[in-house]
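#struct-help
A.M.: can someone run this one for me? Single chain, 236 residues.
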Amino acid sequence: MTHATNTDRKPPATVLSARPAYTDGYGEVLAGLGSAALADAMGRTHRHRAHTLPLVSPDPTRPLFGPAVTMAYTPWRDDVPQGSETFADFFYEAVGPDPAGKVLVLSSGGYAQASHAGGTKLSRVANHRMAGVLADGRLRDFDQLRGQDFATWCQGETARWGGDTVMPYAANTTVEFAGVTIVPGDYIFCDAAGALVIPARSLSRVLETAWAVDAEDARFVQQIRAEANPLAVRAM
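D.P.: on it. Structure tokens below:
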């Protein structure tokens, strides 16, 4: 795949109205939670690693939530069939016939510092009312992405095109993302503290546990406010 052949062969989709980053009816449930409570809840529910370190966003005030669809990247080669396919080919295979509310996950392909996409290609995310993008690589065009009505989190911004470094290789397959396994259908939550990957079958349990964690923390805060300084008491 070269820069000249990395063009879109599918017609542009009709632009639909914007949708919030929170989807699937969990917006109100998640509104008071953050990644820390969810990470604690995942730790009480599962034993595997489910969190990433903090990522970068064009708008870090905008959290991301939704079920994952994945595009697996690999180092670029010019002698495999995937090298002649486009981002659009893999995008439409990944998102399927009902993309609204989903999170597009891009794996690193071993090059987390290379560009995996930019504002132009990712405008499809807005066109199809997806929740947003989670990329284990850099993205281009932060100014353009900041103006879109979806959440974007990645490893940082870059100016250079990365199509001669990495390429999409497969759609809707299990991927490694910053040390975490993401299976299509997993729920992704990401804010400024990092991303959480929640198995779909565990979502309700994890959310209930996260609210319990929040309630415990609130009680601890009240106890701490009421506690006396033991050194001050001894000095009396």
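A.M.: thanks! The first helix runs from residue 27 to 30.
D.P.: also worth noting: Confidence is low (pLDDT under 50) at residues 1-23.
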